[in-house]
Amino acid sequence: MAKLLEHVLDAFFGHPRGLPGRIGGAIMARGNAEQEREAIERLAPSAGHHLLVVGHGPGVGLALAADRVGPTGQVIGVDPSATMRQLAAERCTAAVAAGVVDIRDGSAEHTGCADQSIDAVVSVNNVMLWDRQAGLAEAYRVLRPHGQLTITVHRHVLNTSPQQLTDDVERAGFVDVSLHVRPRRMNSPAVDLVARRAVPPVDQRAQPDRRKQRSQYEPGVPRTACAAHSESHPPPGEPAAVRCGRIRRCQPGTRHIFACEGSGRWKYLTV
Ligand SMILES: C[S@@+](CC[C@H](N)C(=O)[O-])C[C@H]1O[C@@H](n2cnc3c(N)ncnc32)[C@H](O)[C@@H]1O
Questions:
Q1: Domain boundaries 2-196, corresponding CATH code
Q2: Mutate which of 51, 87, 124, 126 to test ligand 1's pocket (most atoms within 8 Å of Cβ)?
Q3: 124-163 b/e with 16+ CB inside 10 Å = b?
């Protein structure tokens, strides 16, 4: 009996298909609209941003995101359900015609997006359907450095603990991971997770403009012996959030400058 119910619910919501899928889509478009809106508002994408909406369902989030990024931006939606892609295309007809919304057959694990091409990845009520490790690795791959991952899900459908979700996101390499379990009226709590793709280690970046960077050093701090590392933190325009552990080690005794995460202050580390 429980198995049969699971199967029926899956046809409405999990992997929507056929008539049940269309009915499920209409229910989700009403019932989850607020959560979709909150996710996009929290993310606050700017004009010109490139967003990836994973498991978009009936497309409420796609339409909201398209309004935010405008004609110079792009919203890519991936969903394995043909029924949901159809409903989303109907909801976003104008934005699809304008080339702002691009709806694709895909999944969290296989988005088809290029490496580091996306400013933000958004997932509403579908992380429980992913192969979580593969989906998080894919989100990490497609996000630009410092790009944002936003996951929100009803607590009652999340198939793991919020703490385990946080741990998995950190294990996938994301930083600045924050998680809130938010009570709601007339619904189970929402689990909201936000994280960022790490900034790559210094030796994997393009060579920076050193004259620009010097002006960022704390006054009076002598330049150090390790030019390759110490003169690259933080990169121009980025907050001082580079973890010291990411600095490749040099000769013993070399003095590095590193930025202590959150403090914004320069400090010395001798390795
Ligand atoms: C419960 S619905 C949520 C839809 C919408 N975001 C909402 O909150 O109303 C789950 C959606 O995730 C899609 N989905 C299923 N497996 C997925 C996967 N592995 N990756 C991404 N999306 C998936 C389903 O096709 C469906 O559209």
A1: 3.40.50.150
A2: 126
A3: bbbbebbebeebbebbbbbbeebbbbbbbbbbebbeeebe
